[in-house]
Write a structure and sequence with these properties.
The complex is a heterodimer of chains A (about 400) and B (about 110).
Chain A lengths: L28 E2 L3 H4 L10 E4 L9 E4 L2 H8 L5 E2 L6 H4 L14 H9 L5 H23 L3 E3 H18 L6 H13 L2 H24 L5 H7 L1 E2 L2 E2 L2 H15 L1 H16 L1 H9 L4 H11 L4 E6 L3 E3 L2 E3 L4 E5 H4 L34 H18 L3 E3 L6 E3 L5 E3 L2 E4 L2
Parallel strand pairs in A: 3-11
Antiparallel strand pairs in A: 1-13, 2-3, 4-8, 5-15, 6-7, 8-11, 9-10, 12-15, 13-14
Helix pairs in contact in A: 5-6, 5-15, 6-7, 6-11, 7-8, 8-10, 11-12, 11-15, 13-15
Chain B lengths: L1 E6 L5 E6 L5 H7 L19 E4 L12 H7 L9 E3 L12 E4 L6
Parallel strand pairs in B: 1-5
Antiparallel strand pairs in B: 1-2, 3-4, 3-5
The chains are: A alpha+beta (about 400), B alpha+beta (about 110).
């Protein structure tokens, strides 16, 4: 990808050789730790800098490293818009992901509509089904003495819970898994094709629900009214596609990073086995230490950031994995402390677009770890294998092969 | 400036002095109070600054907007006197305000 030229208003002293795709530890790395690999920015160089070629398509971005500075950006949607036309390229038509790509004040009406779907009460109601899925998957590989976390557990689990949420039958799980795999891990061409497939699937579901109303997610959206009008088909698709994009890869990656950590740190694994109450704070600490997303905003007007000119049109990146290892915010940030106190991480972002699905995501992680630890004896990374970690727009992990003695 | 008392479920009381015009959430977070998170910074997107307003004080506060009411659905164990502390604007008349903390914010 041809890098874009560095804009004239960027002072050369603030340009830094940094990339989520090419910096050390960002390319697929056996036994890597991509979150830790970026912590160096807190100890050298300016806290706000410009990284040329820091997106898929070779664009430069500002990178905001400090948690406090990120909060200032994310709380100012009038200047830093989250609309990016993410799927224009993939679909040939603009399909804004709703409400992520909608700025306030319109944003709030969509959020108010969707919040109840992912409320603690609703998540409570989903818990039994989610737990049953986790148990079924784990029991399926337990006797083999080995599993590959992502394909055998994390993805089928996250996809299953998502289908449960959509009200779509499990018969389609493998098909869905294939799309998710292409979409999140495939080549650019495969990603685009998968994206179109997902949109077509959602469109089909929408048409079906119009003919045969049902009390499920799409049925709810068809009944919903926003500012005294029904949602348009495009809005419903934008919502459904956003939930697919936001709720699968992130949950699966978190499970992968967490189980990889526990496999490599036997003492932490033992502590969680001995004290189940520690699983909840441990999940929070893993969210902090192994955050996977960045918030990317576009400046819609010029902004003076403590003397640095951010011009209209500039991209501004607020990486959670960097803010969550900010020493000004977290004592001893590189240490994984399962019982960390006052753990105000921003793994679910900050500001008006803070994650809508956090209650569900947290519950999925807690269920996943609880059931895994309850059913699988002491596990480790299978000798001769190495988990493969990578950076990028969303950080991830693959090939987490565990083994244990039956 | 007003003194706001935050009362944990075990009865422990922590008093925070909050400048006029600040939200109770912002004051609690600036003070490092454990029971208030304010994950979204006051945008009514997370419900992690949930409080139970002491019944004696409910009438002293302007009623919640529809958006706040809808967002309280996202809180754990909401009750009739539940509010988002990011929507409570501190002013001298609220000196002595008593806010109960929920057992957990997520």
């Amino acid at each position: 990808m041809q890098p874009h030229a560095i804009p004239d208003h960027v002072p050369p002293g603030l340009v830094r050789d940094f990339s989520y795709f090419r910096s050390p530890g960002m390319a697929p790395t056996p036994n890597g730790n991509p979150q830790a690999a970026l912590s160096f920015v807190h100890y050298s160089g300016p806290p706000v800098f410009f990284a040329p070629a820091n997106t898929y398509d070779g664009r430069g971005t500002w990178v905001i490293t400090r948690a406090d500075d990120q909060r200032r950006i994310l709380q100012n949607p009038e200047t830093f818009s989250s609309y990016r036309g993410i799927f224009k390229a993939a679909l040939g038509e603009d399909l804004p992901m709703v409400p992520l790509e909608v700025d306030p004040p319109d944003h709030q009406a969509y959020r108010a509509l969707l919040n109840p779907l992912l409320s603690p009460k609703r998540v409570d109601a989903m818990e039994a089904g989610a737990r049953e899925r986790a148990v079924r998957l784990i029991e399926g590989f337990k006797e083999k003495g080995s599993c590959e976390v992502m394909n055998d557990f994390a993805f089928p689990f996250a996809v299953g819970v998502f289908l449960q949420f959509l009200g779509v039958s499990d018969d389609r799980r493998d098909e869905f898994l294939g799309w998710a795999d292409d979409q999140f891990h495939g080549t650019l061409e495969k990603r685009l094709a998968a994206m179109r497939t997902v949109v077509d699937f959602m469109r089909g579901l929408l048409e079906q629900r119009k003919r045969e109303p049902a009390d499920d997610f799409v049925g709810f959206l068809l009944q919903a009214r926003i500012k005294d009008r029904p949602l348009t088909d495009k809005e419903i698709l934008g919502i459904a596609v956003l939930l697919f994009e936001a709720g699968l890869d992130t949950v699966a990656a978190a499970l992968g990073f967490d189980l990889c950590h526990l496999a490599k740190h036997g003492q932490d694994q033992q502590r969680l086995r001995e004290d189940r109450d520690l699983i909840k704070p441990a999940v929070e600490e893993f969210f902090r230490a192994y955050s996977t997303v960045q918030m990317l905003r576009t400046a819609v007007k010029d902004y003076d950031f403590d003397g640095i000119l951010i011009k209209a049109g500039d991209l501004v990146s607020c990486p959670t994995m960097i803010a969550n290892r900010d020493p000004a915010e977290f004592p001893d940030p590189e240490r994984i402390d399962l019982a960390r106190d006052n753990n105000r991480h921003t793994a679910f972002a900050y500001g008006p677009h803070r994650c809508l699905g956090s209650h569900l995501a947290r519950r999925e992680l807690i269920i996943g770890l609880e059931e895994f630890l309850a059913r699988i004896p002491h596990f480790r990374i299978k000798p001769g294998t190495a988990p493969l970690t990578y950076g990028g727009h969303v950080f991830g992990i693959e090939n987490v092969v565990l083994d244990w003695e039956g | 400036m007003a003194k706001v008392h935050f009362v944990a479920p075990d009865g422990t009381r922590e008093t925070v002095e909050i400048p006029d015009g600040w939200s109770a959430m912002a004051g609690a977070v600036a003070d490092g109070l454990d029971g208030i998170l304010g994950d979204c910074g006051g945008a009514m997107a997370c419900a992690t600054c949930h409080v139970y307003v002491d019944p004696a004080w409910v009438g002293a506060l302007p009623p919640p907007t529809d958006t706040e009411l809808a967002m309280l659905e996202m809180a754990i164990d909401p009750r009739a006197e539940s509010r988002l502390s990011c929507q409570i604007r501190v002013q001298p008349a609220l000196d002595g305000l008593v806010l109960g903390l929920p057992a957990r914010q997520f």
